[in-house]
Amino acid sequence: MEINKYFNIHFERADDATIAKRLIGGAKIKGPALVILILSIFIASIGLNMNSTAVVIGAMLISPLMGPILAIGFGFATLNFTVAKSGILRLSVQITIAVLASALYFYISPVQTATSELLARTEPNIFDVFIAIFGGLAGIIGQTRKTLDNVIPGVAIATALMPPLCT
Known about the structure:
By secondary structure, the chain is mainly α. It has helices at residues 16-25, 32-50, 53-62, 66-77, 81-108, 116-119, 126-143, 151-159, 162-166.
């Protein structure tokens, strides 16, 4: 019995063109993606303000931040620096929007106390780096399958991209 057949990451792999289209297309930040970004920012901010873990997790799931991150990784992995640069630019725009929108929200919010959900995201450590690395690996393997499954939502929750930007 070969152990390699159980850990073959090429099993049910999509073709290169499908993977490229999926990863590059997921990095767009116009139209619905921009609206979803803004909505997820306010959902995360309200969840942090209300100290609601469920609401914060919901914001993690709907946040489109993963798209540009996957495009950056894809661009560097395939030595397509145009895609990587585009992903970096789009992620930078999303981060700027997230920081500005959440700052506006917390400026006008009547709740001025720091909740445990808010404070939990202010002290990253080495384990957060490991979560990001392993989450990224799981995410890219998930995105290269013929059928998309629940990997990306799991990675979105594990890496918790939106709430730290809103903190």
